[in-house]
Amino acid sequence: MSQTAPRPEQPFEQPWHAAAFALTVHLHERGLFSWTEWADSLATALADNGKAGNLDGGDDYYTAWLAALQRRLAEGGVTGEDEISAMMAAWTEAYLTTPHGHPVTLGG
Amino acid sequence: MRKTVTVSTSQIFCILIRSSATCIRANTGRWTGAGKPAQDNAMPHDHHDDNPHRLLPSEPALRVKALETILVEKGLIDPAALDAIIDLYERDIGPQIGAGLVARAWNDPEFRAALLTDADRVITELGHGGRQGEHVVVVENTPDTHNLVVCTLCSCYPWPLLGIPPGWYKSDSYRARAVREPRAVLAEFGVTLAEGTTARVWDSTAEIRYLVLPMRPEGTEGLDEAALASLVTRDSMIGAGLPRSAGTAA
Lengths: 108, 250
Prior knowledge:
By secondary structure, chain A is mostly helical. Chain A is 60% helix and 0% strand.
C-alpha cells in the first residue's frame, strides 16, 4: 500500500517548522510537559495571534507554535527571553562572521 | 461550548501578545537555507551573494536554533532524537497508514468491527500507536451520516495515521467554520451531501483524535487492499473529501 497510496506533499513548509515541531514532541517525550498542557498553550497562542487577523495555517501557525513552546519553557523555568535573545545574537554573529564555505558554528 | 473557553483563556493569557508580536514581525524575514533542517551545516556563502544579511536565517529560524542550543547545553534534548522525529514525519508517517486501515476495513468485516469498537487496540497491535498518549476514535460514514473532523482550539489530529495536518486544517477559517456551517465547508471541498445525509462534526482534543472511515466506492468489489488503499485520500479520512472512484485504482 505504501507504493500506491499518495505521499504527503510536504509535511513541513520550512525547516524551522520541522525543527519547532520536533523540539516540542521530544520535550514532551522527555516529560517536560503533558500533551494536554501543550495543546492548551498552543490553543492560547493561536487565539492570541488570531486577533490580528485570520491565521492561514502556514507560517503563522508555527509562529504561534513557537510562542507556545517558549511560554511552556518559561513557565517550566527552563529558559526565558533574555537567554534566548543572547543565544540568537550569538548565532547571528556566527552567521555574519563565518568565512566563505565554512559551516556555521558557535564559538568557532 | 468550547468556544467560550477560547475567549476566556485568551483574555487570561494576553501576556503572550508581547512575544507573539515579536514573532509576527519576524515573519517578514525570509528563510534562506535550503533542504533539510540540518541548519548547523549551512554554508552561508554558497549562494554567491556577498550581502551576509540576506544569508541570515529568518528571525523565527534563529529563535528555534537558539532554543535548540540552549536545551542541548542544559542536557534536556538529544539532537539525534530531533532528527529522528523529523525523518519519521517526512518519510515514514503519512496518510498511507490510515489508507491501509481503511482499505482493510472495507475488505474485512471483523477488522472493520474491531476498528470501530476499539481503534486504540487495533492501532497499537499494528504498531501505529500515538506518541502523545491520545485515543483514536474511528467514525464511519454511512448513507445517513457524513463525518467531518476538526480541532476548533488548535490542530489536534491523528498524526500516527495521517502525518502532519495540511495547512487548511490548521487555518482559523476551517477551525471556525467546520462546526458552524459544515455543509458549506464540505461544498467548498467539492463534497455535496444528499438531502437526507446529516453532517456530523467531531471536535478533536489532545486526548481524542478522530479518523473517518469513508464509504467504500461502488464498483470496487474484487479489488485487493493495495488497490483499495490507492483510492483513499487524506481528505476523505478527515471527512473533507470522498475516496477516489473505482476506475482510478492503482
